[in-house]
Amino acid sequence: MTTRWWLAAWVGVVVLGLAGAGIGIGLGFTASSVARPAGTTGVVQPLPQQVNERQAPVAGTIASIAEQVLPSVVSILVEAGLDSGSGSGFVVRADGYIVTNNHVIDAAVDSANAEVTVVFEDGTRSAATIVGRNISADIAVLQVGKRDLQVAVWGDSSVLAVGDAVIAIGAPLGLAGTVTSGIVSALDRPVTTGSAAQTAFINAIQTDAPINPGNSGGPLLNGAGEVVGVNSAIATLAAGGELGSIGLGFAIPARSAERIAAELIASGSSLTPVIGVSLDPAYRGSGALIDTVNPGGPAERAGLVAGDVIIAVDGQPVDTAEDLIIAIRDNAPGDTIELTVLGGGAEFVVAVRLGGDRRE
Predict the structure, then answer these.
(1) Could you say which DSSP state residue 137 is in?
(2) Residue of 84, 88, 103, 270 marked catalytic
(3) 75-114 residue pLDDT tens
(4) Backbone phi, psi, residue 191, to 5°
(5) CA-CA to 295 of 20 to 30 Å: which in 16, 209, 251, 322?
(6) pLDDT digits over 170-199, tens only?
């Protein structure tokens, strides 16, 4: 989230730039007044003025998509003492429901006197309540009292291809209504974010569309202006002193975010897909080593036992326990996946119907 001193610093730069332009205009006007040619009467004849009416943007361009979607994108302000900050979100139902990242609003959950405010494109503000959140997916839903809101339309993230054009909208560093563009750089990129207590596992869309602190929770759009992802994280250089875009941004795919948001709106909680095992975090081999199997869970029903090593999900290699968790959570409870397993001295494939764990 964007802290206030970041916002103040950036706004300061903008204001100084405008002030400089104003000085230049003022000096130019004074010089033209003084440098009047000899023999003139001093009467200034007005020149014909050309008035250009604003033209509607061409359909399918970034400008037209931005004009279409911007009214449904909001800034989110969280007042929670030292943890105050800001982020982005977008309207998913006209009766006041807004999707954002859990990490944008999590400070408000832990603070008794916290306030969450949603700022719309027209500058109007509305107090928001937290409907529900899924920490492991980094998705949260807010609700405001305003009605008849313009809604952002969900798209199909499963048809995205590397190289597709995408657009990010949000409030980086508190600068609301910022639009950037780029391409899909990679798909199914395993990403973990958050703290040890609140870790999110994302099978992410990677994009080079510039994303900065404060973009979190805003929409990633396809060329039709549909939401194909929820902007959630950026990569930074380990040696760098400041956070900022280096062309490595990550978004939660809409195929997961839409389902989770719908469940949160319906019940205040959502189901996280699980296979019913615990994994050995100390295992250093390739794959994910099963430490224990939950009695009666999906893994036990599929015949998996402690000591088995899962090396692929639906044919995609799994190198670490985190890779396995992310691959599983890219599905929905009730889906059936195929696990490639090393166990008992042999390699075999089993079908596992995913269970669901209800959590925040």
Answers:
(1) G
(2) 103
(3) 999 998 888 889 999 999 999 999 999 999 999 998 888 9
(4) -135, 135
(5) 322
(6) 999 889 999 999 999 999 998 888 765 678
Distances (CA, A) of 230 to 3, 24, 183, 207, 353: 20, 42, 15, 12, 27
Domains and CATH numbers, the chain: 1-22+59-268 (2.40.10.120), 271-359 (2.30.42.10)
Instruction: Please pick, among 86, 136, 157, 216, the residue that the annotation labels catalytic.
Output: 216
* Annotation says 335 is catalytic: no
- What's the length of the chain? 360
Write down the residue that tokens 């958050």 correspond to. Answer: 194
pTM for this prediction: 0.80
Candidates 106, 138, 208, 330; catalytic one: 138
* Alpha-carbon span 260 to 39, nearest angstrom: 78
Q: What is the pLDDT of residues 50-78, one digit of tens each?
A: 656 667 788 889 999 999 999 999 999 99
User: Could you please report the per-residue DSSP string of 96-132?
Assistant: TEEEE-HHHHHHHHS-TT-EEEEE-TTS-EEEEEEEE
Asked whether 356 and 272 are in contact (CB, 8 A), the reply is yes
In 3D space, the residue among 215, 187, 219, 213 whose CA is nearest the CA of residue 327 turns out to be 187
301: exposed, middle or buried (Cβ count in 10 Å: 0-12, 13-18, 19+): middle
Tens digits of residue pLDDT in 305-350: 999 999 999 999 999 999 999 999 999 999 999 999 999 999 999 9
Backbone angles phi, psi at 205, to 5 degrees: -85, 125
| 177-181 LR contacts (CB < 8 Å, sep 24+) | 177/70, 177/73, 177/121, 178/215, 179/62, 179/66, 179/70, 180/209, 180/210, 180/211, 181/62, 181/209
Residue 155 CB: number of other CB atoms within 10 A? 22
Q: Is 75 a catalytic residue?
A: no
Active-site residue flag, 323: no
